Amino acid sequence: xxxxxxxxxxxxxxxxxRKGFGHFGAFLVLGIFATMTYYMLFAKTTKGKLIGFxxxxxxxxxxxxxxxxxxxxxxxxxxxxxxxxxxLDFKGYCCSSLVIYAIIFIIHFAKMMSKRKAKx
Length: 120
Known about the structure:
Layout: H1 6-42, H2 46-69, H3 83-119
Helix pairs in contact: 1-2, 1-3, 2-3
């Protein structure tokens, strides 16, 4: 078994921080605000809520792709873009979007059940 040096450990830690907080975390926060924005924009009907969710996911993937395109060597020196980073960004975005929509669904379901119970 090869020994793991302190330098390799620090390199792995820096990679974890950069990918976990820089990519996933930033898009997790973006997903929270974007999902609430799209929900408020499209929430008038049930069909609108579904369309808003689809538009929200498409916009998240588009923003993740655009941020990686801007890292091409054509635009920035010493940086590279990768599809795995796009997917990592999109995963962060989707996590927050799905959690928010799950909370909205639970609240909507609870309100619906209380209305049914009140009617008898």
